[in-house]
Design brief:
With 198 residues, this protein is an alpha/beta fold. It is 41% helix and 19% strand. A five-stranded mixed sheet has the order 3-2-1-4-5, with helices on both faces.
Length: 198
């Protein structure tokens, strides 16, 4: 709640100061975000990759794409996990600090959209804390919650594959964060239309 107080005397990085200046007016841009992590605990787990794509005026902007793999070799080694998928990934590779800086620049003041987006946001906030930054200020929409609201469902959860099937989105053979972001964007546009969101 008083997050800004915690960082008021810290010398935050320039990319963060630039980000904070972007919230004077609301954006009409959505960024569909998919984050691959080592687990579900933001305090202990790490980010392995990001895939993000912009949506403006109900149109997926393939030219506005962000994808990066973060080689977390130390974390994987310390936990006895394989890093083969990192080595084989064709996505650009950056350190966590570089990836977070570029992601923050990419998302700007856009509304973030994802499947269980709260976990993505919290993982990013943990990474930002290491860089002496505050927490994300972006609004966020969750396609799972949107689906539940549309159908008045309270007692069930839906995976991204289940939502894809419900909204007749073909499943991609390539299981990357970028492809999942694209699939989520298609689901989001269908839900946005049915919920009459502007």
């Amino acid at each position: 709640m008083m997050d800004w107080l915690k960082n008021i005397n810290k010398n935050s990085p320039e990319f963060w100061r630039n980000y904070l200046t972007k919230f004077e007016k609301k954006s009409n841009r959505y960024v569909i975000l998919c984050t691959d992590t080592s687990g579900l605990n933001p305090k202990k787990d790490v980010i392995l990759s990001f895939g993000a794509i912009a949506v403006i005026d109900d149109s997926i902007r393939l030219g506005e794409l962000f994808e990066v793999t973060i080689p977390q070799y130390k974390f994987l080694h310390d936990n006895g996990l394989s890093n083969d998928f990192l080595l084989e990934s064709e996505q650009p590779k950056l350190s966590e600090n570089q990836a977070i800086e570029k992601l923050i620049d990419f998302i700007g003041n856009s509304t973030l959209v994802g499947h269980r987006i709260h976990l993505d946001v919290e993982m990013i906030n943990q990474a930002l804390e290491k860089l002496s930054c505050g927490r994300l200020k972006n609004e966020a929409l969750d396609v799972e919650i949107m689906h539940k609201k549309l159908n008045d469902i309270n007692n069930a959860n839906f995976t991204i594959d289940q939502l894809s099937a419900i909204y007749k989105i073909p499943k991609s053979e390539n299981n990357s964060t970028t492809n999942e972001a694209y699939t989520t964007a298609l689901i989001f546009l269908k839900l946005k239309s049915r919920l009459n969101l502007q």
